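CORE FACILITY INTAKE
Project code: CF-77B
Contact: R.S. (postdoc)
Sample description: multi-component assembly, two entities in total
Requested service: structural model of the whole complex
Turnaround: standard
Below are the sequence entries exactly as provided by the requester. Do not edit them.
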Amino acid sequence: MSINEIGLDRKSYMGGKSTLCSGCGHDSITNHLISAFYKSSINPHKVAKLSGIGCSSKTPTYFMSQSAGFNSLHGRMAPLATGAKMANRELKVVGISGDGDSASIGLGGFCHLLRRNVPMVYIVENNGVYGLTKGQFSATADQGSSRKTGEINTYSSIDLCSLAIEMGCGFVARSFSGDAKQLVPLLRAAMEYEGTAFIDIISPCVTFANHPGSTKSYDAVKERKFQLQSLGFIEPKEEISVDYEGSTLVELHDGSKLALTKLDGHNHNVHDPQDAMRVLIEARQQNEFATGLFYFDKGLTNLIQDERLAHRPLCDLQEEELKPTKEQLEGVMERFA
Amino acid sequence: MSQSVNDFSVTIATVNGSGSQSANNILMRTIFKMGVPVSGKNLFPSNIAGLPTWFSIRACQKGYVGRKPFSDIVIAMNKETLVTDFSYLREGGLFIYNSGLKIEPSELPQNYDILAIDFNELCKEVTTSIQLKKLLVNMIYVGVLTEILNIPEEVVAQTIEHQFKGKESVYEINKKAVHVGRNYVKENLNEKSWSFKVEKRDLTQDKILIDGNTSGALGFVYAGCSFASWYPITPSSSLAESFEEFCNQMRVTSDGQKHFSMIQAEDELSAISMVAGAGWAGSRAMTTTSGPGISLMSEAIGLMYFAEIPGVIWDVQRMGPSTGLPTRTSQGDILAAARCSHGDTQHPLFFPSTPKECFEFANLAFDLSEKAQTPVFVLSDLDLGMNFWMSDRFEYSDKPFERGKVLRKEDLEKIQKFARYADVDGDGIPYRTLPGTEHDLAAYFTRGTGHTPEAKYSEDPVNYQDLMNRLDKKWETIKAMVPAPVIKEGKSNKKGYVYFGSTDLIVEELVHLTGEADVSLMRLKAYPFHQDVKKFIADHDEVVVIEQNQQGQMTELLRGEFPQLAQKIFCETNCDGMPLSPELVAEKLKNRGNYVH
């Protein structure tokens, strides 16, 4: 049985049995998360998994049962995760949300979390429909795509990656639930990024959005998706193999690296937000899904740094560290005398 | 003319944004420095600059601090309201107005003592700067009034120095403006006799003059609150801002690390959700808000109730329904808070009555919230929160924080099994672990859905009923944790007045005015009701609940809690947005007659 650096086997990163529909993209993502946490030897006790409400938000029960979990309120994962991270900065926070949860009811919280740059991994499992309420359009459904009932979406769709770049996020990526080769390195890199790492994962809904009129069905994604880069994750102590010759290396805060090897002549600068936006807009105009890492900025300060938060977690501070002295109180009283 | 010593009220009419606040504060604190009990109320519009605003000061050596329906002295400095400001004056009172505004008060009745002073002209003696004139014109009326009231100039000077500590140039010019005002009175009005004066007393020694919001903020600092998130809303904003200010003074290490986190959220939905996240992770977390914020927060408060997460919500109540009157006081959120959120929920409420209780209740609320693992409300109001009250100094408490049933790694090592929602002690309160605890038993899954004692999702009807029953049991446990009411038994058991919150500040005068020497009094401090509450009602022929809302919300809670006593619980309400006036309430109480069955 193989074990990772902290002596845990892959099974130690698993959770309860999924109750989602068979073939759901979300279950694949769960599986990739398990792989990523296992491979990166992350201590499950130090992980907090938070989610909102919806099919995607059920998934934190399906991985890492040794980690604290919180299936919260519809659209409120972002602020809940913010509070938890500020109270205990040592927690490795992973937030799982959906397109209904983040692009509609929780859009405000999502944008403001990105503005604050809360250190966490923020995943949207994006299928363009409200699965749990039986297939209504979500705000990420493409204009012109249809529901299973035949109804056409006339509204413009929200592109969460463009939005994330606009909100100042320094780690913006898109992937596909079925692409372990791309997603696992992305997840591992996201876990080492000291700010909000946002990954929009197209994850087909087999029950309500897998029909021909859907632009997020398995067939549609296979047909329309292209990769900007092939990705490789390199651990801090690992040598950089010849395979990555000519690749762009993006270094994370712990010294690990994400190797980006350009594909199909896609010549995009991952450090340039304008270039990232260009790729996203062009792909959209051509009815394609661009996947890969769009934008990366290691130079941003995060909320913990901006707030000059104590080095020890707030929740561990003792009474004498929280309660000023009697003399200080008397001093304040004097001001009002 | 008879002279009233240390017993008068002054109303100053100005325009908001004109800088009158610091002048009014100095006037109030000068009287306080003379050893005379005083209170100050700001009646302000929901606007930043240009609308009328009034500040009322009541000085009373008997210690009565409630609002007077009419003032003894009115100082009219606002062009817009000058013609009507004398309607605030009681007959025979002193009306001082700024004749420099070139507007004359409309027809004045005979029975007023009227002084027309050109404050603008006087201000030319103080400064030539147009900017400063606007501010300093206010200090001239401070000079005029303190001279009339016979307050020594050096006491005013001391107050100015205290107010502008360390800014010498600022206090010199303010003192000069006061001097000009005083000189005007000496030179032009020396033959007049005045009906009011202040004489030195020693009734304010060891006291402070403070508002409830500042007091609550300081309370949270001393209660060990380490996380706060809020969304700006009148009249609670100053509490959040004071908290941050105090924390920056007292919770930052010498190398600049902050022992707190304070986040201004994008809305109240996020503010309370951040509190839920931080409370879940083990911080003492709070939010400050007012009525509309409570409405928005209700979903997350229900989650905290059901998932059993501590957190304190401090509601500085303002007039509703809806946006209501953002700058007017109310006690109208009682039912909204007690049952906040859908489904069957119920939450403990605290009702601070004084600035000192605002300070103390911050910690009481956290102790209860963490012990019971449930959100707790503190219901203050605009009158208590934003107006100035004389208070005893706050006392430092050596009592350790009560953090409730939290299992650490060491505790888990001693047990075989941990079930998050199991009622191990039979009091309805389970044990919790915090995220990040390094032990295999520690992790559990928090959710707002139906859950088993092991925190697993469950739709099982028996399990659900058990869960709801346990929460009811917890509620019973909470009843023994809340503070007892303050009771003053009257000579007979005929009638009792029940009141809470800022109403306390007028009760002594109220009873004096109704002349009911034998009436009993009970001040509620918390909900659910302590056992003494029931006893008090049972022991009296009738009780009258005095409330600052329209529908008698506390009365409804009491009647619901004690149905067998309901027919002797009556209420008298006032819902006009104004702080209670002892005179007006006394009238109402006298007119309600005897309801005893």
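Facility notes:
- The longest strand of chain B covers residues 89-98.
- The CA atoms of residues 307 and 364 of chain B lie 21 Å apart.
Invoice: internal transfer
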